[in-house]
Amino acid sequence: MILCDAAQVADGKLYVLGGGWSITGPEPAPSGIAMKLDVAWSEADMPHHWELFLMDQDGQPLTVETPVGRQPVEVRGEFQVGRSSAVPEGSPIDVALAVNFGPLPLQPGNRYTWRLAIDGESEENWAVSFTTRPPQPLPDADV
Questions:
Q1: pLDDT tens digits for the chain (143 residues)?
Q2: Other Cβ atoms closer than 10 A to 50
Q3: Partners of 131 in the β-ladder
Q4: Which of 50, 40, 52 is nearest to 93 (CA)?
Q5: How far, in Å, CA of 126 to CA of 39, rounded?
Q6: Are 112 and 129 in contact (CB under 8 A)?
Q7: Domain 2-132 carries which CATH code?
Q8: Cis bond upstream, residue 134 (ω within 30)
Q9: Alpha-carbon dihedral of residues 13, 30, 49, 91, nearest 10 degrees?
Q10: Which end of the chain has less Cβ packing within 10 Å, N or C?
């Protein structure tokens, strides 16, 4: 997984704009996550469910105000890959995923982590973290 300004998938490839950052803000800005997954040969031709959860610096789900009340910031999706004759038997099969977000209301000067789960399972390295810059001081006004 890589943090970026934006990402898309075309022809099975990831196209990443402004990728590889770990510090943002303090103002809200659009962002994205580019993911390249390796699906085991034995897991091909099966549907898989993925979820991304945004966690705060205390490891708790980040919630934001929505029209239906406070909700966690999370994204879900499905993928399924087929076995190709171009891929040798037993080889992992690539899956590219791109998720883009509008500006999120994040607190300046905090640390956040996106955690990935696939089919309800997650591993420690299925995460990417970032920090929001502290608020900028206001310039002195001349009176």
A1: 999 999 999 999 999 999 999 999 999 999 999 999 999 999 999 999 999 999 999 999 999 999 999 999 999 999 999 988 888 888 999 999 999 999 999 999 999 999 999 999 999 999 999 999 998 877 776 65
A2: 19
A3: 23, 111
A4: 40
A5: 14
A6: yes
A7: 2.60.40
A8: no
A9: 20
A10: C
Q: Where are the domains of the chain?
A: 2-132
Q: Which residues pair with 112 in a beta bridge?
A: 130
Both tokens of 140, joined, read: 């002195």
Task: Give the residue from 33, 24, 25, 26 showing the smallest Cα distance to 6.
Answer: 33
Question: Which are the contacts of 24, defined by CB distance < 8 A and separation ≥ 6?
Answer: 31, 106, 130, 131, 132, 133
d(CA 76, CA 54): 12
CB-CB neighbours of 104 under 10 Å: 17
φ and ψ of 66, to 5 deg? -130, 175
- Single-letter residue type at 83: R
pTM of the model: 0.89
**Coil, strand or helix at 41:** helix
The Cα 101–Cα 87 span in angstroms is 33
